[in-house]
Amino acid sequence: MNKDYIIEQLKKQIEGFEVAAKTEKVGTVSEIGDGVARITGLGDAMASEMLEFENGAVGVALNLEEDRVGAMVLGEYTDIKEGDQVKSTGQILSVPVGENFIGRVINPLGKPLDGKGDIKSEKSYPIEKIAPGVITRQKVNQPVQTGIKAIDAMIPIGRGQRELIIGDRQTGKTAVAIDTIINQKGQDMICIYVAIGQKESKVARIVSELEKHGAMEYTTVVLAGAADPAPLSFIAPYAGCALGEYFMDKGQDVLIVYDDLSRHAWSYRQVSLILRRPPGREAYPGDIFYLHSRLLERSAKLSKDFGGGSITALPIIETQAGDVSAYIPTNVISITDGQIYLEADLFYKGVRPALNVGISVSRVGSDAQTKAMKKVAGKLKLDMAQFRELEAFAQFGSDLDEKTKTTIERGKRTVEVLKQGQYEPMAMENEVAIIYAATNGFLDDVAVEKVGAWERDFQKYLNSSAKAVLDLIREKKELSKEVVLKLEKAIKEFKEVYQNGN
Amino acid sequence: MKVTPTQYADALYEATKDKSQEEVGGFAANLAKVLAHNNQLRLKDKIIAKFSEIYNRENSIVEAEVISREKLDEEVRTKVRTSLMIKYGAKEVILNNIIDPNIKGGIIIKVGDDVMDGTVDRQLAELKSCLNH
Q: What whole-number distance in Å separates Cα of residue A126 and Cα of residue A274?
């Protein structure tokens, strides 16, 4: 790099530089505070048009009133003064999207937060987009393997589905979502984790955990932290969804986790109240239902003619003291295609993930389940249902008839089998094998408290000595006679080795 | 129901359209009475501003604020006037010249919400941002 070259370049740049005086629409800030500005002028601003403040901050026109515009400011608003000029841009708020965002931590406006340098992008997508219509959609037919036994077996999720994860604080909602992301390795899935109003320390922990498991290679984290202004939290899920739509339009499968939508509703409530929109139930504005329905409706499975991509959404809702009949939980429950209930009681009893399989449902996922899983899951569901019915009698122990006793004993072992540690997602074929073993009585002679250890060794044995069986299940995806025979043989062999070993 | 300044100004314009000077005086007095009765006298400035806006629009008059470093001479004024007449299809252009030495050169023309910024100041700022990228 010599001096002359630099000067030459500068000269060229300056020579080629041209400014045409163009007409701009401007308004004046008449009121500013709490992240919301009121602007006079701007006569022909559009709804949700991007505005530009003098300090470079971006605003979004939300309220179009008779002689002024109410706008939220995305980012720093403390140095915007009354009387500042605001330019309209003629564009609807959009965010940059592209391949380069994979593996990065970004804010809702697409700016990097991980200190790994600028992100180049060629395209930008509007953050608000009408969801794909009926013609473009297809029914959900491919599974999302969460790697969690209880979910894959009993509450299956399909690509393009919206499955709500709901529960009190500290019941492992985020853990379920993160495990699912970790398990997408090699499953041809782009993952987007949208943190809405989350503690930065929590997000840092999640990102490092994802990196440790090699999951950041296909994951983008969109972060609107607890310290960021409410408008950023408000647009975060839409920005994440826009990024997801970019990949869906390219025919790829996308998994988006919205963590969590209760905070999203809070931030929208704040913005709405400051904009003086009338408050309704629980002080939420009137369009709070539409806020979530238009977001979740953008998850879709597109048909082959439209590229065949999909967006699967895992929204998370935090309930207060198990109250699922509050306003926001009921709204989101009614929008989604099923819900996964996590319960504090189960969590403290040591059932982790603390899934309440009795009231958790998946309305469309069973179509997407692999045949092998469907077969073992049917029996599993029945076992669990019978166990729940008889659970109350479990204390009486010896006074029960033989049949009830076996059901209870079987149920206890099934519950043990469905327990699973965090960051330990399991492949589909391993899940099928252990559930098959549990539902077909191979565990009945193992003591309940030893089931956990038994299973761990069983999986080790399968992964090393009986790999052929696993491969067979993975390829065939169904439990044909031949597969069942081989699987049973493997289980029996393992039991012999195991019992001799002890 | 509350009556907004725009509605007052609209009504006043409708009523005074095609009326002679003396009649207009009566309407203005009436409006003042109505405002006093409705307890809305404080809206008078807004109504006046709105009225002149409506009047200008209806009669194709454009009021432009021209900011320049030095006082504009007649030649430039005529140029600005004709170009604005073409741009806005106006019959008459009222120029209001404001002197601001900070803009270094060129002029800013403001018509309502529209701003045409042709100053050296802005061009320098754009060159700066262009070189920064």
A: 25
